[in-house]
Amino acid sequence: MPVDPDACVLPDATLCAFTVLDDMLVALAQGPTQWKMQLFEHPCLGEDPQPGGQIGEVELSTYTPEIGIPGKPTAPHFLPVLCCLSLPGSRAPHGHPQACGGFTLEEALFGLLFGADATLLESPVILCGLPDGQLCCVALRALVTSRSAPGDPKALVRILHHLEEPVVFIGALKTEPQTEEAVESELSSMEVHSDCLVALGHHGRTLAIKASFDKSGNLVPELQEYFLPGPVLCAACGAGGRIYHSTPSDLRVVDLAQGSVPLDPQQPNRAPGSLPPTLCPTSLSVCSVLTVSVSPRAPAGETELLALSAKGRLMSCSLSPKSPGPTRMTSASADRKIKELLSGIGDVSERVSFLKKAVDQRNKALTSLNEAMNVSCALLSSREGPRPISCTTTTSWSHLPLQDVLTATCLLQNSGDFSLDRGWTLCIQVLTSSSALDLDAAGSAVTYTIPVDRLGPGSQREVTLPLGPTESGVLDLPVTVSCALFYSLREVVGGALAPSDPLEDPFLEEHALDLLPEQEGICLPLSRLTVDMLRCLRFPGLASPHTQAPCLLSPACNPVDTFLEACCGPSSEPTGPASLRAKYLPPSVASIKVSAELLRTALEDAHSGVPLCSATLQWLLAENAAVDIVKARALSSVQGVAPNGTDIHLILREVAVTDLCPAGPIQAVEIQVESSSLADMCRAHHAIVGRMQAMVREQAAQSSSPPDLRMQYLRQIHANHEALLREVQALRDRLCTEDEASSCATAQRLLQVYKQLRSPSLVLL
């Protein structure tokens, strides 16, 4: 049935509870840090449904707001409970407090609980049960009179008790037996004068308050706490001093009426009219009841309960009247009682196993989080020194039947006192550069994830990955290999936050995953390695005479081509694009000149007593597997093979650079790269320039001053390079518009200009 928006009486998003009292509407709203009780005039029939106006307001106790999404109010897991209590005869002639969740207390108990002021004013009292366990009371007439001159909230709000758990029900009932005249009087006035106030907490703690006499004959409040099976979902007070309360597994009833529990001979001092020391719940064999209410229209001597189940079913339960006095238990009832007890024991055992499993999961999650925090702090605080967990990457060539493959081996070592268990993953990202023949192409990245399972102190894990060439025979260099550790919060913490039994706390089921952060884990970088052409070069000509050099297979080696070449014999002319380029086209050349003084300063510690050209070549090939042979033979030039099979020649010689320094020639080392493949020559030249840039930055940090230079000569060289760059742009634009015959001459001129740019007249100082 749709509800018209005009029927809204109090549009307030912070409203959590309300109750109606005669001509007043009492509402409880949730503030940023405090609960706020507001009093409004109740609208009359036929008028505007909006409340007439606020006639009182008071702030209750403070609370700690829950952590939620910034900028959005967080709804409480447990809503507060409101209950109206009044004196006999103080209500309106036709006001029925039980119809709106209110009760009438006897004058003695009312005065003991709320004081003489509320009793003299004959003021109804609103009793509020808060989610933190507090029981607060506010006298409504005192709240109305404080409207014109608001005073201290402490004078208006009184805290009766603290249950130390969320309050789910507040009610009142009659426990003492009544005479026939008293029963007829209550039936005529439709008021039950309750002599006991009860409050139930979510976990089963129950408070009962009654007026009684002490040893001196003074009227004092008697407080008795009980512990019922929980968690309590709802409750209701019925006739005869009975309290009906629901748990996820059963609907039970307890009896607080006088004489329901026989007097204990071991407690002779207990007064006959006092509260029973213990309560014995009786099962009604109804489970999963979310809301229960006692119907006021039940026939005399009977009780009818209206219950709403967790599946949305509205049920009516009729209970037979209790037989007067104890009866002798028969064998059938004993069997039924034993079955109920065994069933209850089974339910408790199953609940205990659920709780134990949940506790074990959360303990493991907390242990894993503690280890993750220790690992993160250790890695982030030791960036310069030795790290407790390291990952070293090395490269090597593997010989396969059809082609040679470049592989990367990542060695994960745990040198610390920590253990990497569930939730840790080693992530290896292989990032290839764009192709040298297609400058607009973007590089591709492949990420490998390897679960790290039980890597204890002193253990290591080795992973080997292929870097290339691909099936098309292409290996785009340089290739960057990055290693990192990833810790998954969702894998470790997600299962521990989920409730083991949704009925035990239905609110956690909705908010469990909201407690996780937006990030799914923690990423800790370990290492980063760039694999360039100098690292990938192979030198079959440097193999020892006593050692047979392995045959280098082309990446795109076709078995048919290999068979045909073998049939032609060794005297046949070489075939293939690479061989034709090497035979008929001049090699592509690039060079770079480096000051001899700069090289001696940078290499004096590791290569003392070695010729400068040989020491420089050893430094360039320090990450190559053939560096030991180059060092043993003191070579200054070497010829290697690129991954695609083309030759690359590295030549180092000492030269003198004139016309640059007025004091005389500058001694330098010229590093020359030759190859029949323009792309491979560019890759090797790029690798050399990268190493030289790192050397220059390192020496510049040591404040070494360069010699005096001829600025006019430098300006002239700069102007020449600017002219060459402009010519390159013009030639590239011309290639887009010329036909095939004219473009050949343009392409040849473009290659000549590129050659001049790759061999500048400058020197690195």
TrEMBL record:
It comes from the Eukaryota. This is FA core complex associated protein 100. GO terms for biological process: interstrand cross-link repair. InterPro entries: Faap100 (IPR029251). The lineage of its organism: Eukaryota, Metazoa, Chordata, Craniata, Vertebrata. One of its GO terms (cellular component) is nucleoplasm. It comes from Marmota marmota marmota (Alpine marmot). PANTHER family: FANCONI ANEMIA CORE COMPLEX-ASSOCIATED PROTEIN 100. The gene is FAAP100.
